[in-house]
User: Which sequence fits this backbone?
């Protein structure tokens, strides 16, 4: 395959910026342009549901790269410029104003859009989501002491939002139909400990679905719970029930799409000149898209290698973190793959680790406030060494010694 001369990246989130960074680091010298429908310099999303909502960070604090970086790396940034279509057969992309720009490789880094509640009133603009800087800015203004805030969805972003809102003095109700949210991802023990913290911190937790949302008067939103069991009145409603991958451009171009743009090694899509990275991409053979910060970062690095035909780094097991109520959750691998578990530390203390094993190999771990355990677990999972569950659980054993066969 010939070396590209013009690379167009659609989107300017972490996966896009990581792709550009890695392309330059790997020696790509040609034209490189980022097109993004959002305005301004690209920013990082995890702080939106943490320090930005808390009012501790502004937009300048969360930029992915300083302004000079784009000039220094010769990365063209076309912000406020939506891409309407990609045309890989004609080596180009079409912008929203109808103009066509040449590109012999296209990287789709379009992320996802928040899911709305699939019930009557669920798409009312008074029902908020949290994905962009603007979402966070508007929501922050409403998180005032004593405000009634209802959060629907107690997964990652919903739980973080509820935790910030209660810390700011709001009266928070958290609604989720699942009794122990996240159990499938981090295992029952860690998920239960995390979820129970909400009640301890003063959040009203309700296990229920939502039947409909109503806005009888300006400023008030009524959340009708399933089966007419209750109506929760709120000043602000936030929904955090996941995202839909933004696959429209890929579908229109005839690429293979199935719960994300399907990619192979090097982030290659079903078209040889189109690559996909970050939240929009799903690696063929994997059930889920890993909608996490590190996956977006590493996807960019892999795409750069794929575009330039360089050898690929072996990807490690997926890892993510989440902060709530002053504690940090970290998880590596997929707990659903585990056949049995070993626990290190005392769950009552609030800080502990659950290791998930399949046969004698560690396949996953989830921890609350135990960063060192997760650091060691990542290496154990990635190297596939046989481990003794009793030694994993024994606080007297330095986990790093388990790496030595
Ligand atoms: C509030 C929040 C908190 C999070 N916290 C954590 C955390 O604690 N830990 C963790 O591991 N992960 C966290 N994540 C997830 C992590 O931030 C994402 O996985 C990562 O940002 C995905 O990056 P991306 O580049 O794929 O997508 P995005 O960051 O969504 O970027 C995609 C960009 O493409 C633009 N775009 C879409 N279509 C077009 C088009 N046609 N033309 C031009 N531009 C387009 C979009 O507007 C967007 O700007 C969090 C995410 C959010 C939203």
Assistant:
């Amino acid at each position: 395959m010939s070396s590209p001369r013009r690379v167009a990246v659609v989107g300017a989130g972490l996966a896009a910026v990581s792709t550009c960074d890695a392309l330059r680091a790997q020696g790509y010298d040609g034209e490189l342009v980022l097109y993004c429908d959002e305005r301004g310099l690209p920013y990082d999303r995890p702080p939106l549901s943490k320090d930005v909502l808390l009012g501790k960070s502004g937009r300048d604090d969360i930029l992915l790269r300083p302004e000079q970086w784009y000039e220094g790396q010769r990365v063209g940034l076309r912000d406020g410029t939506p891409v309407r279509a990609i045309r890989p057969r004609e080596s180009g992309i079409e912008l929203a104003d109808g103009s066509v720009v040449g590109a012999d490789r296209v990287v789709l880094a379009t992320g996802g859009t928040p899911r709305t509640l699939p019930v009557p009133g669920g798409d009312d603009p008074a029902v908020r989501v949290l994905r962009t800087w603007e979402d966070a800015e508007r929501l922050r203004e409403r998180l005032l002491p004593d405000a009634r805030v209802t959060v629907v969805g107690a997964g990652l972003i919903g739980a973080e939002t509820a935790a910030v809102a209660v810390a700011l003095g709001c009266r928070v109700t958290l609604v989720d139909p699942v009794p122990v949210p996240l159990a499938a991802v981090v295992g029952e023990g860690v998920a239960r400990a995390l979820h129970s913290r909400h009640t301890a911190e003063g959040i009203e937790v309700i296990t229920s679905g939502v039947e409909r949302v109503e806005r009888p008067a300006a400023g008030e939103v009524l959340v009708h719970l399933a089966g007419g069991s209750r109506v929760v009145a709120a000043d602000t409603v936030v929904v955090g029930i996941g995202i839909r991958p933004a696959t429209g451009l890929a579908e229109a171009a005839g690429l293979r799409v199935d719960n994300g743009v399907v990619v192979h090694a090097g982030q290659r899509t079903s078209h040889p000149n189109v690559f996909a990275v970050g939240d929009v991409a799903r690696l063929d053979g994997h059930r889920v898209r890993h909608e996490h910060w590190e996956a977006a970062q590493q996807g960019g690095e892999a795409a750069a290698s794929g575009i330039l035909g360089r050898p690929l780094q072996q990807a490690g097991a997926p890892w993510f973190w989440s902060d709530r109520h002053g504690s940090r959750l970290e998880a590596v691998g997929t707990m659903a793959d585990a056949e049995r578990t070993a626990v290190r530390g005392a769950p009552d203390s609030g800080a502990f680790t659950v290791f998930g094993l399949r046969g004698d190999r560690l396949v996953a771990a989830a921890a609350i406030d135990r960063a060192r355990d997760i650091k060691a677990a990542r290496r154990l999972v990635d190297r596939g060494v046989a481990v003794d569950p009793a030694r994993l659980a024994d606080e007297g054993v330095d986990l790093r010694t388990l790496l030595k066969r």
Q: What stands out?
A: The pocket of flavin-adenine dinucleotide is lined by residues 10-16, 35-38, 45-46, 48-49, 82-83, 109-111, 130-131, 157, 246, 249, 278-279, 291-293, 296, 320-322 (CB under 6 Å).
